[in-house]
């Protein structure tokens, strides 16, 4: 019994099975790989560039301010440029980051019809100086990177070929109905670090291939409306969202990861995350007082720094299906108000559990903090476990009359 209870405290082993890596935020590389800077998703230019005419050396058509090595790339980054230089029509990748460019006009890309990717990040782009339709004729354009500029709106009339768009670190206040129209190939939209306070428009719903939406560090007070069915990664950390409508996620069955840490969630419908494919759920740094249903597919759950006083297993795991076990392997619950480590029932319900990070819990004023000793432990309940080794345990604490020994592993 004691051993079972102490199983709940794990801190030191975090590294051994690589679970700590999920602390990092990075939707852009393949799921679960090394974390990168969350607000800086790596910009990937298309790999499959057409190099058939690479052997031909063009030099005389390159703008004076820039550098064009033989091939299809033009480097104009870090040159204090105030405007976009002339771009030869063969160029496919254009690096314009770290300049002082404020304007994009209809003329800017007039000849640059081969462009597949433009990096305009870290400039001074102003919405009133970005002409509507400036990008419209670039029919091969797949990626536009405009993070760290002064945009207050999403530029209009982007070409329908666009797959990845980054507008992080601007001053965008809203998504208008006409924005992002016809972008049926868009898979990634990064709007983190802007001033968006709500998404009411139905415009996102029409992005039929959108897989990843990042809206972290904005001013959202409610869940964004009308997200498309295709969505797999949703990042809305650090907004001011206080609730989630009960049926909100029922229209988003493809979601693999939801990141909502640093919001104001207090009460959420118990079954709101009942999603068939959800693998990662981060609700850390909210105000949750109640546990909620854990879908079978979920592997990593972050609920640290909330107001949880207990983790009601009847709610988290209403029934156990031994042929279809819950996949949860990692849960982080530190900085709550838990009075006791997780019930042993947790390991029965979540037989794949590898780590529970219990850490320190918040304590009332005047109380001395109870530091839980990190323990080297091993979840008892696994496929290989000797059934004889599992002590008989009647689980009554949660209103379930539950006899461990009735279950086969
Ligand atoms: C576009 O190409 C034409 C013809 O080569 C040239 O005269 C013009 O200056 C170019 N404009 C820009 C903005 O590159
Ligand atoms: C685009 O510019 C940003 C700097 O703002 C840089 O981090 C990124 O690597 C650039 N992308 C490529 C493919 O060079
Ligand atoms: C939350 O977002 C604000 C900007 O809206 C930013 O200043 C702050 O650093 C962010 N906090 C966290 C924890 O990311
Ligand atoms: C757990 O939740 C169930 C269902 O809401 C409730 O009946 C039960 O009293 C709760 N148990 C505890 C210990 O809070």
Automatic annotation (TrEMBL):
GO terms for cellular component: extracellular space. Residues 61-93 form the LRRNT domain. Pfam families: LRR_8, LRRNT. SUPFAM superfamilies: L domain-like (SSF52058). It comes from the Eukaryota. It comes from Xenopus laevis (African clawed frog). Residues 1-18 form the signal peptide. InterPro entries: Leu-rich_rpt, Leu-rich_rpt_typical-subtyp, LRR_dom_sf, LRRNT, SLRP. The keyword Glycoprotein applies. Keywords: Glycoprotein, Leucine-rich repeat, Repeat, Signal. SMART domains: LRR_TYP, LRRNT. The keyword Signal applies. This is Osteomodulin.
């Amino acid at each position: 019994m004691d051993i079972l209870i102490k199983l709940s405290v794990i801190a030191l082993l975090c590294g051994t099975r690589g679970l700590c890596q999920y602390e990092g935020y990075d939707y852009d590389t393949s799921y679960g790989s090394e974390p990168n800077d969350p607000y800086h998703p790596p910009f990937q230019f298309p790999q499959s560039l057409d190099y058939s005419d690479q052997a031909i050396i063009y030099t005389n058509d390159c703008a004076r301010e820039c550098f064009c090595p033989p091939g299809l790339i033009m480097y104009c980054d870090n040159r204090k440029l105030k405007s976009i230089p002339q771009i030869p029509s063969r160029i496919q990748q254009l690096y314009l980051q770290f300049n002082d460019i404020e304007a994009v006009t209809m003329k800017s890309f007039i000849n640059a019809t081969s462009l597949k990717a433009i990096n305009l990040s870290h400039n001074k782009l102003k919405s009133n100086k970005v002409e509507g339709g400036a990008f419209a004729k670039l029919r091969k354009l797949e990626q536009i990177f405009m993070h760290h500029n002064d945009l207050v709106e999403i530029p209009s009339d982007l070409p329908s070929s666009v797959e990845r768009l980054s507008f992080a670190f601007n001053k965008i206040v809203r998504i208008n109905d006409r924005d992002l129209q016809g972008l049926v190939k868009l898979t990634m939209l990064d709007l983190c670090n802007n001033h968006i306070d709500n998404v009411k428009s139905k415009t996102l719903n029409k992005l039929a291939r959108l897989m990843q939406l990042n809206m972290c560090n904005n001013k959202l007070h409610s869940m964004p409306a009308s997200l498309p069915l295709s969505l797999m990664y949703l990042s809305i950390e650090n907004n001011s969202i206080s609730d989630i409508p009960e049926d909100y996620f029922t229209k988003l069955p493809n979601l693999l990861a939801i990141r909502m840490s640093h919001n104001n969630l207090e009460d959420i419908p118990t079954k709101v995350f009942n999603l068939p494919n959800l693998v990662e759920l981060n609700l850390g740094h909210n105000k949750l007082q109640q546990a909620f249903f854990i879908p079978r597919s979920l592997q990593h759950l972050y609920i640290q720094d909330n107001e949880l006083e207990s983790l009601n297993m009847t709610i988290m795991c209403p029934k156990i299906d031994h042929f279809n076990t819950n996949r949860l392997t990692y849960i982080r619950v530190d900085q709550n108000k838990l009075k006791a480590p997780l019930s042993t029932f947790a390991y029965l319900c979540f037989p794949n559990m590898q780590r529970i990070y219990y850490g320190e819990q918040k304590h009332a004023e005047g109380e001395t903090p109870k530091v839980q000793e990190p323990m080297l432990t091993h979840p008892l309940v696994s496929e290989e476990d000797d059934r004889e080794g599992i002590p008989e345990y009647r689980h009554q604490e949660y209103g379930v009359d539950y006899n461990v020994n009735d279950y086969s592993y």
